[in-house]
Amino acid sequence: MLVELGYTVVNIVSTAEAAIAGVRETRPDLVLLDIVLKGSVDGITAATLIKEESAIPVIFLTAHADEMTLSRAKIADPLGYLLKPFELRELKTAVELALYKNAHKHDASPWAVHDLQSGLPNKISFLDHLKKSIFLAERRSRSIAVLAFVFAEAKPPEDDSSAGPEDFISVIAEKFTSSLRKSDTVTRLESGEFLVLLPDLDNDKQALSAFHRICGLFQEPLSNGLRRIPLHVTSSIALLSKDDQDPEILIKKALDGLLSANSDDKG
């Protein structure tokens, strides 16, 4: 169909790995990418990698129009969607608009992929970062860790005003972001619950060392400039296993670790 419209098709592949390699080799003007690909890596993760490496625009082809799929797809910042099956005129419009938008691109609102209260990447963005990191870790034989933290008020503040973790969300977020690498990712799940992704580590020993260092950041009471509050911090770590590389399971292991840590504290 693209040839019929006068475009040159430089490559046709069926896996994310082949798509990424093909983009590196041919440097096309536009990539049409199916969300569902053969193999363990989907088109959304592939599009994210393509965007980070080459900034080449992507149009998604998909038969899946459910809200969760489209929400995830937004993270890759595609310049268009085509729901299958589609007609020639729909393809023509999508391609022309994508090429036009890419030539006249402007900055998008940062809140599309960020938590409004903390300014941190939101949960969907965190999950896509994790999927990409697992993909790269497998190819490069690297380690990954997901850390989970829950902040709770250790005791009432000395003054009469009430304060809790929700009053210190931005302070906690700043504490994390100022102490992590650019490649690390932090997200807030609920009021005082956070996840931290540590990708591209040499080994599990380095992950544990980073975990203990980050835990040490919150030993002292936090201050938002108006008051100080001592926080009780519960933390856990989940390491990527070669036998199980499902991102959802890795997150679940980290959160389950919080439950175990809370049980130990009560015991």
What does this structure look like?
The protein is of the alpha/beta class and 267 residues long. It folds into 2 domains: 16-108, Response regulator (Rossmann fold, 3-Layer(aba) Sandwich), CATH 3.40.50; 123-266, 2-Layer Sandwich (Alpha-Beta Plaits). Helix content is 40%, strand content 19%. It is built from 8 helices and 9 strands. It has helices at residues 16-26, 43-54, 67-75, 88-103, 123-140, 169-177, 204-216, 247-266, and strands spanning 31-34, 58-62, 80-83, 143-153, 185-190, 193-201, 222-223, 228-229, 231-239. The chain has a 4-stranded antiparallel beta sheet, with helices on both faces. The chain has a 3-stranded parallel beta sheet with strand order 1-2-3, sandwiched between helices. A two-stranded antiparallel ribbon has the order 7-8. A hairpin with a 2-residue loop joins strand 5 and strand 6 (193-201). Helix 1 (16-26) packs parallel to helix 2 (43-54) and helix 2 (43-54) packs across helix 5 (123-140). The mean pLDDT is 83.
Topology readout:
Blueprint lengths: L15 H11 L4 E4 L8 H12 L3 E5 L4 H9 L4 E4 L4 H16 L19 H18 L2 E11 L15 H9 L7 E6 L2 E9 L2 H13 L5 E2 L4 E2 L1 E9 L7 H20 L1
Parallel strand pairs: 1-2, 2-3
Antiparallel strand pairs: 4-6, 4-9, 5-6, 7-8
